[in-house]
Automatic annotation (TrEMBL):
Species assigned in the record: Saccharopolyspora cebuensis
Annotated keywords: Copper, Electron transport, Membrane, Metal-binding, Respiratory chain, Translocase, Transmembrane, Transmembrane helix, Transport
Location in or out of the cell: Cell membrane; Membrane
Record's bilayer topology term: Multi-pass membrane protein
Protein name, UniProt field: Cytochrome c oxidase subunit 2
Keyword DNA repair: no
Pfam families assigned to the protein according to its UniProt record, in alphabetical order: COX2, COX2_TM
Primary localization: membrane
All residue ranges annotated as the Cytochrome oxidase subunit II copper A binding domain in the record: 128-257
Top EC group: translocase
Cofactor note: Binds a copper A center.
Transmembrane segment boundaries: 55-77, 98-116
Length: 304
């Protein structure tokens, strides 16, 4: 009987391991997807830093879980009731109590340390960012302006969403970008899923309970949909925008056009006109991602 029980446990372990292996393989996930544990792909170094914190936190949790599960199953398998005698007690085992007090404490300290390091990195603001952009939210649209670039009439280069044009925030890759957030009416929220970052925009900066400035660096070209993530009124669900991340040479050409007069219209180039003039493929298509501009002819807020 004892021999059969001894061989049964390793067999169960093998079966459990095989089931786990088949379960992982059946998901069709790549090794990178498995190691991300469901964390979405990001396009900034800050997003990658948060993913690494998530990955190692999950691994640590799994290690602790396996240890606890192992001890539970070990107790169930090898310490079942065999007689009426009281089994050996460990409630006054001081070394054991010190171990299971110290180990959780160390886990919390290590997790707190790496969380603080990651948070400080994500929230860090460079002293001299390569680009600055002001993000202004209003019901139910967005304004993006670049204070360091001026149109021929001396005004900052700005893009405001309209019924004909989805608001486009064009940014360079590989450069540090500082975002200053504000609102002209109610609380909104600037959220770009690929940034893995969200921050509310407040109408009164002096009453803001959070920092309205953050910075990041986009490490790849692409078109990314942004959203308002704070319920802000009737048409909150339609308050979307696009980020166009262009290589530095394309961004310089874009800004060169935005600071010139369009000879066809006699006005400074709009974001859509500048991108069309550049003719750089899908990234220069004004509505490549969101597809249909939303109606802004409603009673609501106004831009700055």
């Amino acid at each position: 009987m004892g021999l059969k029980e001894g061989t049964r446990v390793p067999r169960l372990v093998k079966v459990a391991g095989l089931i786990g292996l088949v379960g992982v393989a059946a998901t069709g996930c790549t090794a990178d997807e498995v190691l991300r544990f469901g964390w979405p792909e990001g396009v900034t170094p800050q997003a990658d830093s948060m993913r690494q914190l998530w990955t190692w936190s999950v691994i640590a949790a799994l290690v602790v879980g396996v240890l606890v599960w192992g001890l539970i199953f070990w107790s169930v398998a090898f310490h079942r009731k065999k007689s009426e005698d009281l089994p050996r007690q460990f409630q006054y085992n001081v070394p054991l109590e010190l171990v299971y007090t110290a180990v959780p404490f160390l886990l919390v300290v290590v997790l707190f340390y790496f969380t603080a390091v990651t948070q400080n990195y994500v929230l860090a603001k460079p002293a001299n960012p390569d680009q600055r952009v002001n993000v202004v939210s209003f019901q139910w649209n967005w304004e993006f302006n670049y204070p360091e670039y001026r149109t021929p009439d001396g005004q900052p280069v700005r893009t405001v969403g309209s019924s004909e044009e989805i608001p486009l925030l064009v940014l360079p890759t590989g450069q540090s970008i500082e975002y200053t957030l504000s609102s002209t009416d109610v609380i909104h929220s600037f959220f770009v899923p690929e940034f893995h970052f969200k921050r509310d925009t407040f109408p009164h900066p002096d009453k803001n309970n959070q920092d309205n400035v953050f910075a990041n660096t986009i490490d790849q070209e692409g078109s990314f949909v942004g959203r308002c993530a704070e319920l802000c009124g009737t048409y909150h669900a339609m308050m979307n925008f696009e980020i166009r991340a262009l290589s530095p040479d394309k961004f310089d050409r874009y800004m060169q056009l935005r600071t010139q007069i369009n000879q066809r219209t006699g006005q400074p180039y709009t974001a859509a006109e500048a991108l069309e003039e550049m003719n750089c493929g899908e990234l220069c298509t004004p509505h490549a991602v969101t597809g249909v501009p939303f109606n802004t002819d409603r009673t609501g807020g106004v831009p700055s």
